[in-house]
Amino acid sequence: MRTSIALIIVLASVLFTGCPMSKNPTGTLDRETYLAVYCDLVQESLRGRNVGADPRTASRNAEVVLSKRGITRAQFDSTTSWYNEDVRRWKGFFDDVAKELEYRELHPEPQPR
After folding, report:
1. CA 56 to CA 101: how far, in whole Å?
2. Is residue 88 classed as helix, strand or coil in its secondary structure?
3. How do the domains of the chain map onto residue ranges?
């Protein structure tokens, strides 16, 4: 019986140690949403550079990207700040950005007419 209880305690501690206990604070985006918006902004930035957009136009285009996703600038900036508070949060994020951008390049969405 003691062995079973000890085994359960060890398993529970291993499981809880591997699970992130803290969620994003209120006012920030979950990782999947942040990743999608971040990739949208990267793509918009590249499009803007290709057409020679001035900074004001680029800023307006970024706001349109956020608006289409239903995201405010404050949410995006708060999430970025939260990631910056502990740079380990960025671990793997940029790998996922590269994968997502590559996927989007290989599987472009049809453009509306």
Report:
1. 25
2. helix
3. 29-113
